[in-house]
Design goal:
Layout: H1 2-33, H2 37-49, H3 52-119
Length: 120
């Protein structure tokens, strides 16, 4: 029973990581990583004014946006990495269990054939 639980745990981790990634893509990404048309128009209008203060605030806003995008990208990379590793572990553990079960089935089949041969 303990051997059955281990692959299941890693499959649950895989599913959880993929769900987290999906939530990030659907909820976090659209509002956080893509500028709206209004923001783009405002930025272009501010650039057209060529004011020193605007240039400084613009570079700060762009740097902040770039950092936010980088954090999102890093988060997605880590989440997907966790999902991949958990899935590989679950598959490896599942294959080991499958080999053991196959060996047991073959032994039982051999015993069954031996019993059937003894009856005839």
């Amino acid at each position: 029973m303990g051997m059955l639980i281990r692959p299941v745990i890693f499959n649950v981790v895989t599913i959880a990581a993929l769900l987290i990634a999906l939530v990030q893509l659907l909820i976090v990404a659209p509002g956080r990583t893509t500028p709206t048309t209004t923001e783009a128009v405002q930025l272009l209008g501010e650039l057209a004014k060529e004011d020193e203060a605007v240039d400084e605030s613009l570079s700060v806003r762009l740097a902040t946006d770039q950092m936010r995008r980088q954090r999102f990208s890093n988060s997605m990379t880590v989440t997907m990495g966790i999902a991949i590793v958990a899935n590989v572990i679950a598959n490896h553990l599942g294959r080991g269990r499958q080999r053991r079960n196959l060996d047991r089935i073959r032994r039982l089949e051999a015993e069954l054939h031996g019993l059937q041969a003894g009856r005839t």
